[in-house]
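Next up, sample data:
>
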Amino acid sequence: MSAVHFGAGNIGRGFIGLLLHEAGHDLTFVDVNAELIAAIREAESYRVIEIGPNGREHAVTGFTAIDSSSDRDAAVRAVATADIATTAVGPTVLRFIAPVIADALRARSDDTAPLIIMACENALQATDALRESIAASLGGDRHALERAVFANTAVDRIVPTADAADGLDVRVEPFCEWAIEAGPFAGSTPSIPGAHFVDDLAPYIERKLFTVNTGHAATAYLGHLAGAPTIHEAIALPRVRAAVTAVLEETSQLLVARHGFDVETQDSYRATALDRFANAALADPVARVGRQPLRKLGRHERFLSPAAALAEAGTTPVALLGAVGAALRFRVDDDPESLALAERLAADDAPTVVTEVMGIDEGHPLRSALVDIVAAAQADPAV
């Protein structure tokens, strides 16, 4: 069995690649980072090291790598004959890898089982988005598109910034979850022991995004304002932990109402997330977790999506609005988005920022509060 994974970074090697290896697949990593690809080609193995309580160490072998920027044809050939193709490249990059996958489907033999395609991104319905881009690249060739099975996934594992001394080895938290929608497989799900298949993926995606991603980002932004350099140091501050807990109580309220999660189960999931943030062994910088605030302040992202839904249901999401205020004040010199956000706040009035950055239009019940939050950040960006 063989699998092609787009994205040879830490998440690709330390999470998806590891589980595919443990499922018995020969791995091919595809990336555009020539230096990284060369290092993977030269290596016979790398380690995935779980850091924190009850952490284990895994050895990954049986892999190769392709630089798709210099050898696109090799990437197409690898995908055309693979059993599984996965991604961990970031949702905005999916459209750039779609043409490679489209050409692979054109070249794929009808005698080969359909290629299983799963985008493993921090985004809702990422595989659907990838499918749309592949279909656009294929034009009207529906026969080629039918040579693949597309399944959405929800993925969850904290992978901190790599230490250069680790080489290809990856340090990760012990916790991980890979949920895959079962429907597209019509009862014949692939064997991936580290993953689990569910009939309805939407609740799992939203639970993860609105608990782990929302809480992680809130910890970063509130911790940044408090002067904490790392996530575990931020969540150790009583005022930050209280604020993040309040944020997650609001999102839990939405998740229970929308998806019918058992209250005690959601409470436990929320407590586990907070414990994960407190893992001192990860030493995860707030600057890494908080990067790209413009994207994270978008209408369908981790703050505004649950906040808007709560407001539409008649609840004022006070804690989420506080986290938005902290995000607006996030400044990191090597994060272009935080600098671009500062420029927007300096150039535009608050209503314009709420409309164009946050996607909340006139008449929405959350708009007035957001305008006030933005105006306050413009008046005092250091609070």
Notes: The mean pLDDT is 95. The chain has two domains: 2-199, 203-379. The two ends are 55 Å apart (CA to CA).
